[in-house]
Every structure is written in structure tokens, then in C-alpha cells.
Amino acid sequence: MTEETRPLSRQDLVDAAAAATSLPKTQADAVLKAVLAAVGDALGAGREVRLAGFGSFAVSERAARQGRNPATGEVVQIAASKSVKFKPAKDLKTRLGE
């Protein structure tokens, strides 16, 4: 895996934030933790999170439904669930070349 294809890690984000702001890495790490906690708390409370120029995160709910076990064909009940959806902003789409 090359450097360009390696996933960006949390430590990479801390390093980039420290370099961009001249903050020590420990402070940049604390800021990143605080931001991620705030985003997680907002989503946990059912609120949408909008980051201008980047995108928005929202909680999506799936209703309970019936499915089939592919191995046996048995009908199974799939519980309702929640997940996070991300919608990129126009600026981010432009950076991606879309």
C-alpha cells in the first residue's frame, strides 16, 4: 500500500492540524477529540451536523423488516436500526472531481 492509498488515520489528522495551526500535537489531539465527541453527541441526540464546505452528517432510521437466511431460506425478523449518513458539500464534490 502506497502513501497515497493508505487510509488517513486519526494520528495523521492530529499531525496535519498541529502543522496547520502551530499547536503542539497534544493540544491538536485534544481539539480533535473534542470535535469528534461533539459530533458524536449531536448525532446521538438525533441532531444533524453541518460543516460548511465539507458536508453534513445525519442519523438515518431503518424500519424493522423481514429477511431471509440465505443458507436455509428461513424467514428472519431484522430489527430496526439507526446509521449515520453523510452528504458531501458542493466544495468537497468539486475537490473530488465530480
UniProtKB/TrEMBL annotation:
SMART domains in alphabetical order: BHL (SM00411)
Source organism superkingdom: Bacteria
GO CC list: cytosol
Keyword DNA-binding tagged: yes
Keyword terms: DNA condensation, DNA-binding
CDD domains: HU
Record has Phosphoprotein as a keyword: no
Any Gene Ontology biological process: chromosome condensation
InterPro entries (UniProt xref): Hist_DNA-bd, Histone-like_DNA-bd_CS, IHF-like_DNA-bd_dom_sf
A Pfam family hit: Bac_DNA_binding
Molecular functions (GO terms): DNA binding; structural constituent of chromatin
Similarity section: Belongs to the bacterial histone-like protein family.
Protein name listed in UniProt: DNA-binding protein HU
Organism for this UniProt entry: Pseudoroseomonas cervicalis ATCC 49957
